């Protein structure tokens, strides 16, 4: 197309692999892309300029005013005067239609996965169901010491503890009339009813017989029994010949839980994709997920197998009719935000186009393949014919309106009906939080979720108030009034805007992927807080977190929450600034911890293109690190440097020391390139250095510009 310069491989990908699956012609498609880009790029640029302008005014205000002394009302008035805080307007309720039940009326875990990693992405879409037994046996939810410790082969005592916990779960979730599941020696179906035969010779059924949904196999010797509780399915696997089932009094081989109801296929925080080659990788996986053709050969434990997407299954209802069970998570696609540009397409002036616009067009184009499938297709994402896109890092209602306008335009060019593309709003920038109601109003025909991305949100908290003073220790920031207010405010506003029954009110990531016992203790707080979904980092975490939605009836909690007063805006605006003098040791330790995390993450991003990593912290706890956690750590150090809590020399010296620590942590990785010996010339080390030293100047404290720059340089150097 004259005017646009399109990367050749990308053009081939679109024309040879995607467009033939649609009714669109290539010429018309590129012509539409061009006019869309011409229309939307300048608006995108103006929105970014407004971000900078507001930030500059906030910086100046803090330099001229003592935030703590003037009082919160004065600060709030200032934010209103500059248009950062806008009028929230009249009450309204969202009107989003054609929303799948997994989003609108069900409550359960949401798994996030980097879409660039096909092996993980396939695992994620298949994580709709997970083994409770494996999740208990394989994690620290059960004590890992003493007689219960996992051993090189199966530890029967640990196994028995798994079975005990499984029975406890059954008693709590699917209680029997008059006895415990521990007393049952046989489960079967009789006269269209579920029946449990009890050790004392009696037989019983469920306290609530309607919980029984379906079964497999003969009535007298079923191989699987399916039940429903709090909207989620539970499968009792009966297999007396399996290694677990033969030691079980009732032949139960496993308890399987409906787990990740939804999954976010991520193009953003967890992904490193800086050029056409890497964007094509992401889009090709997206295509395979929507067509159902994605496959990956997995080599594991000396065995090799091909991982594919699960197909839905058919079972027998008690009355003999057929019952279908969904086996795949409903997929959202998270696009990148409005900030970055990408030269996969250059406009008629030769400028790289906004990456968010490219993601919007291409992921919706791929999503349109799903929308056009027949309802009885083997692999179908949305039965309601919707395309679910999550948009991150938007600042305020104007940016939400821009996204919606972009989606409308994309729908027109793809021939989709209005509001086919649904919008998940990440509530992860301060200007979106404080204007959340106005943001949702802009998307009232599309909104399918509001999610508190507290990690980016913490980074933005620091950057927005960079000039206000030094921030507290990172762990303390999480305990302050602003964050509790932020979490409650999101739920309060979501409920007031009618999200219940139409959309998700979601909560953020559990960022300690191996600490499952702690997750079980803490993350029940999410459903209790009224969230009908919350993020988990892995399929195992999804299965364990699913237990929380059996323990808590989220929709009942939401009814109670509707009666309380809305969280306080003034608490939200209370900046978590340091109020005490830290010791030199505290400063050093905080820096070491942050720097270890930054280097451990950045080195894999820059050198290997891995956008999400598990990196040990100073106490050797593996933390999920992604762009958002990097934003927090780098902004935190930049803030302390800016306010002289530490010096550049000190930071550099810790970086040098931590580079050696990170090198050692990665010594078993054959693809790893050590940093410590030649930090001056190491691209990853330099990226980390500038993320910190230029942190104050990064747009809203984002990490993408420097990460992209250094990965592109690194790829050029080692090409
Ligand atoms: C601020 C935000 O935006 S948060 C959202 C962004 N973050 C994410 O998306 C987190 C996604 N999670 C991950 O990428 C990973 O779990 C990490 C990086 C945290 C840990 O990865 P690893 O150290 O490789 O995990 P670990 O070795 O414990 O487990 C790997 C296994 O679990 C699976 N797995 C781990 N995470 C996921 C996931 N999110 N989805 C699907 N499968 C997963 C892998 O497929 C692999 O199994 P396989 O060998 O059968 O393929
Ligand atoms: O995207 C999620 C976040 O916490 O940031
Ligand atoms: Mg984020």
Automatic annotation (TrEMBL):
Keywords annotated in UniProt: Cytoplasm, Glyoxylate bypass, Magnesium, Metal-binding, Oxidation, Transferase, Tricarboxylic acid cycle
Any one of the GO BP annotations: tricarboxylic acid cycle
Pathway assigned in UniProt: Carbohydrate metabolism; glyoxylate cycle; (S)-malate from isocitrate: step 2/2
Modified residues (Cysteine sulfenic acid (-SOH)): 612
Residues annotated for acetyl-CoA binding in this entry: 112, 119-120, 270, 307, 537
Binding site for Mg(2+): 428, 456
Subunit details: Monomer.
Family in the record: Belongs to the malate synthase family. GlcB subfamily.
EC number(s) per entry: 2.3.3.9
Catalyzed reactions per annotation: glyoxylate + acetyl-CoA + H2O = (S)-malate + CoA + H(+)
Compartment list: Cytoplasm
The keyword Nucleotidyltransferase appears for this protein: no
Chief localisation class: cytoplasm
Chain ranges of the Malate synthase C-terminal domain: 586-678
Species this protein is from: Leucothrix arctica
Limits of the Malate synthase N-terminal domain: 11-64
Residues covered by the Malate synthase G alpha-beta insertion domain: 154-229
Coiled coil location: none
Residue sites binding glyoxylate per the record: 334, 428, 453-456
GO molecular function: magnesium ion binding; malate synthase activity
Reported cofactor(s): Mg(2+)
Top-level taxonomic group: Bacteria
EC category name: transferase
Name this polypeptide is given: Malate synthase G
GO CC list: cytosol
């Amino acid at each position: 197309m004259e005017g646009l310069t399109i990367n050749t491989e990308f053009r081939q990908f679109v024309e040879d692999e995607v467009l033939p699956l649609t009714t669109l012609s290539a010429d018309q498609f590129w012509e539409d892309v061009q006019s869309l880009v011409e229309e939307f790029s300048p608006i995108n640029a103006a929105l970014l300029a407004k971000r900078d302008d507001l930030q500059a005014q906030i910086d100046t205000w803090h330099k001229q005013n003592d935030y703590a002394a003037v009082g919160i009302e004065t600060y709030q008035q200032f934010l209103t005067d500059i248009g950062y805080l806008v009028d929230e307007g009249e009450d309204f309720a969202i009107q989003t239609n054609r929303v799948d039940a997994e989003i609108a009326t069900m409550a359960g875990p949401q798994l996030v996965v980097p879409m660039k990693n096909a092996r993980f992405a396939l695992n994620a879409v298949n994580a709709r169901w997970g083994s409770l037994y494996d999740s208990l046996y394989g994690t620290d939810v059960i004590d890992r010491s003493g007689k219960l410790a996992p051993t090189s082969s199966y530890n029967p005592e640990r196994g028995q503890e798994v079975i005990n916990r499984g029975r406890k779960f059954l008693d709590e979730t699917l209680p029997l009339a008059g006895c415990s599941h521990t007393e049952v020696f046989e489960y079967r179906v009789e006269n269209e009813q579920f029946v449990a035969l009890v050790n004392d010779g009696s037989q019983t059924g469920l306290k609530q017989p309607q919980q029984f949904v379906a079964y497999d196999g003969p009535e007298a010797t079923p191989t699987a029994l399916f039940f429903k509780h709090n909207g989620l399915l539970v499968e009792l696997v009966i297999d007396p010949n399996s290694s677990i089932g033969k030691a079980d009094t009732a032949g139960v081989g496993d308890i399987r839980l409906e787990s990740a109801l939804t999954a976010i296929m991520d193009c953003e925080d967890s992904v490193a994709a800086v050029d056409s080659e890497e964007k094509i990788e992401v889009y090709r996986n997206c295509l395979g997920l929507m067509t159902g053709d994605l496959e990956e050969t997995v080599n594991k434990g000396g065995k090799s197998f091909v991982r594919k997407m699960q197909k839905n299954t058919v079972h027998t209802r008690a009355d003999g009719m057929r019952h279908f069970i969904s086996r795949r998570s409903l997929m959202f696609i998270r696009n990148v935000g409005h900030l970055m540009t990408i030269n996969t397409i250059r406009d008629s002036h030769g400028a790289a186009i906004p990456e968010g616009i490219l993601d919007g067009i291409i992921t919706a184009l791929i999503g349109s393949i799903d929308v056009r499938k027949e309802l009885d297709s083997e692999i179908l994402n949305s039965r309601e014919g919707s395309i679910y896109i999550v948009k991150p890092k938007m600042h305020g209602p104007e940016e939400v309106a821009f996204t919606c306008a972009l989606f409308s335009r994309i729908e027109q060019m793809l021939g989709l009906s209005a509001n086919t593309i649904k919008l998940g709003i990440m509530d992860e920038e301060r200007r979106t939080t404080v204007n959340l109601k106005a943001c949702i109003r802009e998307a009232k025909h599309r909104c399918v979720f509001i999610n508190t991305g507290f990690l980016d949100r913490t980074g933005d908290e620091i950057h927005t108030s960079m000039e206000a003073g030094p921030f507290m220790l990172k762990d303390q920031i999480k305990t302050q009034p602003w964050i509790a207010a932020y979490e409650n405010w999101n739920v309060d506003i979501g409920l007031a805007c009618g999200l219940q029954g139409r959309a998700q009110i979601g909560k953020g990531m559990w960022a300690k992927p191996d600490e499952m016992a702690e997750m079980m203790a803490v993350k029940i707080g999410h459903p209790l807080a009224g969230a009908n979904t919350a993020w988990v980092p892995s399929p195992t975490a999804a299965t364990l977190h699913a237990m929380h939605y059996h323990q808590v009836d989220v929709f009942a909690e939401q009814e109670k929450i509707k009666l309380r007063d809305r969280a306080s805006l003034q608490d939200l605006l209370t900046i978590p600034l340091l109020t005490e003098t830290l010791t030199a040791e505290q400063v050093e330790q905080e820096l070491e911890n942050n720097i270890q995390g930054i280097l451990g993450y950045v080195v894999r991003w820059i050198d290997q293109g891995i956008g999400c990593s598990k990196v040990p912290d100073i106490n050797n706890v593996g933390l999920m690190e992604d762009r958002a956690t990097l934003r927090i750590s780098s902004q935190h150090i930049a803030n302390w440097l800016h306010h002289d809590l530490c010096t550049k020399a000190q930071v550099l010296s810790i970086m040098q020391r931590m580079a050696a620590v990170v090198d050692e942590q990665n010594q078993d990785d054959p693809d790893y390139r050590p940093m410590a010996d030649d930090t001056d010339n190491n691209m990853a080390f330099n990226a980390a250095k500038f993320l910190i030293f230029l942190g104050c100047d990064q747009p809203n404290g984002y990490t993408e510009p420097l990460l992209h720059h250094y990965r592109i340089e690194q790829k050029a150097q080692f090409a």
